[in-house]
Design a protein that fits this description.
9 strands; elongated; 4-stranded mixed sheet; 3-stranded mixed sheet; alpha/beta; 19% strand; 193 residues; 2 domains
Length: 193
């Protein structure tokens, strides 16, 4: 996750554009971008060139603007001559069923001029394998595995490959030999750091 504050001079956008950031696996970019635009604020009638730059940047991370569950301002003006606006945004991973919308809590504004925003991130249980079959590299077992595999592989008759079906049959026989030879020579070990 990247949390952004971009001031009125759009310093964060300039940083992203001017810096070759080596950032991978970004799921969320969120923050106060200080960009008013009709793309995310239906009450604002104008388009900003800064929003084009922002969209280009987040697109390079394969992120898209989060959909709104409710359309309310994210920033409230203390000046009665200025309107409230949407300048706090979430950009979430494209085509993600888990990360596809955020919530705006205008009632949690308190004394701040910005509201609270949240996004739910679903963390599912993951099976972590603690054991696996292996053969120690450069061991006698590895040499025996290779010798047995080559001997069994050489017994495959490849002289009658004339159809797609006969080719697939040979590939399946190859896979069976590899698996059975592996099962004979590998041993189950605990995975450690």
């Amino acid at each position: 996750m990247i949390n952004v504050y971009s001031n009125n001079n759009h310093s964060a956008l300039k940083y992203f554009k001017d810096t070759e950031a080596n950032i991978h696996n970004v799921l969320i970019i969120a923050g106060d971008f200080n960009i008013k635009d009709s793309n995310w604020d239906s009450l604002y009638l104008f388009h900003s060139s800064y929003s084009d730059s922002l969209v280009e940047i987040v697109d390079s991370f394969d992120l898209t603007l989060s959909s709104f569950i409710q359309q309310v301002p994210t920033q409230y003006s203390n000046n009665k001559h200025n309107s409230n606006s949407v300048i706090d945004l979430f950009f979430l991973q494209s085509n993600s069923a888990e990360l596809n919308s955020h919530k705006i809590y205008s009632e949690l504004q308190f004394s701040l001029d910005h509201t609270s925003l949240t996004v739910d991130i679903i963390i599912e249980k993951e099976f972590i394998q603690h054991k696996r079959c292996t053969i120690i590299k450069n061991s006698k077992k590895e040499s025996k595995f290779i010798d047995d595999f080559i001997r069994n592989f050489q017994n495959i008759d490849i002289g009658n490959i004339i159809t797609k079906g006969s080719f697939e049959s040979i590939v399946q026989e190859y896979a069976s030999i590899l698996e059975s030879t592996w099962q004979v020579h590998s041993q189950l070990v605990n995975i450690i750091k």
